[in-house]
Amino acid sequence: MIGTVRFMTEISADGAEALLGAAIRPLAASTFVATFTGVGLGREQARNVLDKEIHRRFGKPRGSDAHHAYQAVIVQIVLIWEQALLAARTTSGPLRLLPDGARVLAAADPLSELHALLGV
Question: Superkingdom of the source (predicted)?
């Protein structure tokens, strides 16, 4: 996978700490690929697919503080996707794959492509 994000396959008490300690841009790039692979241009993807991917990697949040921390990181990831014009939220709730997002999915190095789109 992309970057040095620590993946967790079991529910862990320190999942929220690991999630909050993860480098956000590599996490945004890798979760974008995991969330949108196989989704056609202009098609919608349910936001809970991202939630499930974060839970797969970091475990399900335990307690309200952890839940709120997870949700804050998920919103930050979606904002990065929107800032880079990869995907956008629709008024009905799902995420829509945008043309630049399709290019990132096709790139050999999605993280580098994301950085280029963000100008970093």
Answer: Bacteria
| Helices 24-36, 110-118: crossing angle, 10 deg rounding | 120
CA distance 87 to 52: 18
Q: CB-based contacts of 111: which residues, under 8 Å, 6+ apart?
A: 2, 3, 25, 26, 29, 30
Ramachandran sector of residue 38 (left: φ over 0; alpha: ψ -120 to 50; beta: rest):
left
Q: What is the pLDDT of residues 54-91, one digit of tens each?
A: 999 999 998 888 998 999 999 999 999 999 999 998 87
- Tell me the CATH number for domain 15-118: 1.10.10
pTM given for the model: 0.76
Q: Where are the domains of the chain?
A: 15-118
